[in-house]
Amino acid sequence: xxxxxxxMTMAPGVPSLFYMQQIFWAFVGTxxxxxxxxxxxxxILYHQRISSSRNVSGAAKPRSFFFQAHATTSAIIRxxxxxxxxxxxxxxxxxxxxxxxxxxxxxxVVLIVVCVFYRLDPKDFLQWEDIGYRSGFIAVCQMPLIVLxxxxxxxxxxxxxxxxxxxxxxxxxxxxxxxxxxFIHMGFWFSEWAKYDYVxxxxxxxxxxxxxxxxxxxxxxxVLSSVAPIRKLSYEFFIVQHIISWLGFFTALYFHVPEENxxxxxxxxxxxxxxxxxxxxxLIYANLSVLxxxxxxxxxxxxxxxxxxxxxxxxxxxxxxxxxxxxxxxFLACHPLxxxxxxxxxxxxxxxxxxxxxxxxxxxxxxxxFFKYAEKAYSGLPTATGRRSTGRSVLIDGPYATIxxxxxxxxxxxxxxxxxxxxxxxxxxxxxxxxxxxxxxTSSRLPGLSTPAGAVTRxxxxxxxxxxxxAIEWFASQLDQVVRDVEGLRNEGHDIAxxxxxxxxxxxxxxxxxxxxxxxxxxxxxxxxxxxxxxxEEKKALTKNIEETLSRVSSSSTKDCCCTRLIxxxxxxxxxCDCVSRRQHQQQESASTTSSFGKPKRVADTRINLxxxxxxxxxxxxxxxxxxxxxxxxxxxxxxxLVQCARNAVVAISDDRAVHKGTGAQGIYVHAEAFGYA
Length: 678
Hints:
Fe3_Rdtase_TM_dom, FNR_nucleotide-bd, ion transport, EC 1.16.1.9, transmembrane helix, disordered N terminus
């Protein structure tokens, strides 16, 4: 380098440093371009299916050669990319990412290694300096990608149709790949200096080296503090320190890199500022009451906090100033209750409800403070008659997230664990609204691609796993409305169906993510269900027995009843899990599940299956796939064990049915949402 700023002269036949940066971004840009093309094809397919659904039966089944090839290619990629290897060690379960994202990151690391060592020999001592320069240039040119993947209003997500919450995983791993590149950069420089016993002198006297070590140290801290176990210790603290550390890293990096390379510093700073500006505009619009007609006061949103049980809070914002779609979430902040914190919550309602509604599990930090406030505001649990609070002013940021429109699929399977129903419930209700024809026509940002109302979907399978029967009341009215709406539509001659099953169990693998679902096979054949040939009278009597038993245990501790047996046939007779006898005289009838005459009150419509046990995820998906007339989708939201089980079940079913071999069996799309911060 000339005065550490000019361009270093490389050996004959070795590409220049700037040229290798261009090669790196050529590959990255190509990958983003391919994802963008795939997103456009999916949008065209969605438009085509909805447009033809009124005239063609089984519109979700590809007919043209092009879309048949597209479906086959998609099936091959899904079978490969969805699978995740279950691992366990000493009763601890580890949830690896699916193969698809893992291979994407492997390819990214290979790209870095090739760009660093292309036409350079790491065994040749005389080329160590060249490798040190090259790796430093490749490291700094990764900065725009890291910042682009981190933005909430994400440019890459806009083009590829992938939400920021999914790109956050790539953001963290690209940052780790950057650290790997920095280690190569430092390693070859230090190895060269060590040949002459010059490391100590450079570290003590050379300002450029000192700034480089400072930047590398801060980057190491950023990566280590972003590891999930550390990040989750205090998410509020993590966010604050992460931003401060990031600014410190950029400052040290700015003074370390040569002037010609500082474009890679200004670009990500510009992307970051643009993202913050756009978010600020949305934030101001959503929260200032002067911008909305029916709002009073300074802030436009007031939220009420209602305790649902001993660990869940319902937060409701009436007449919200924003609109959203099913499956989205927003960040909610209530600084008087939880200062300087903002948490993402899934929106459990539809715009047609006229309110934003969230069901939040009280853990630590802000969610625990919300629950404590709700208890005080309501002077007790949900059945209390104390005076209700008028609510607190809150700030909202969003909505965020994106999901492929589900009404383009022939059949849908929704699987949720506990509060995961806040994600799947509005998605199911949204399809029912499409069936009823009460939803407005959706518009597209692309001219000529406005999608008409309606849905290709014929069949919905909804599965919800809860620890206690009392949890059903969170969405009892919505479930009952879905059942009534579908019955009315069927009476009018519509060929649609919704099957709803609620599994009551205290198996943490399905609700809170404390253990794993390692497979879909029964653990003990002696715990299998009874024969499905039982008479209707026997089933009715046993169903009543199950309901009475669940009513008795619903108000006791969740440890009183652990219905962890696997239910492989929902039509079979299943004896109830009556665990109350283990603790005599402890049960107390809950007011929410018992009528004034002391008789158990059913909290859900009689057409909704209430089952005492855990679902056989693979069987549920397979039975739906066998009757699907076109491509189907599986939407799962819950702890990592449940998500992994659903993904692997789809891979096995798709492979068994040879979807990728042209057998005529249709593909299965999976959208998975796991508990935890993005």
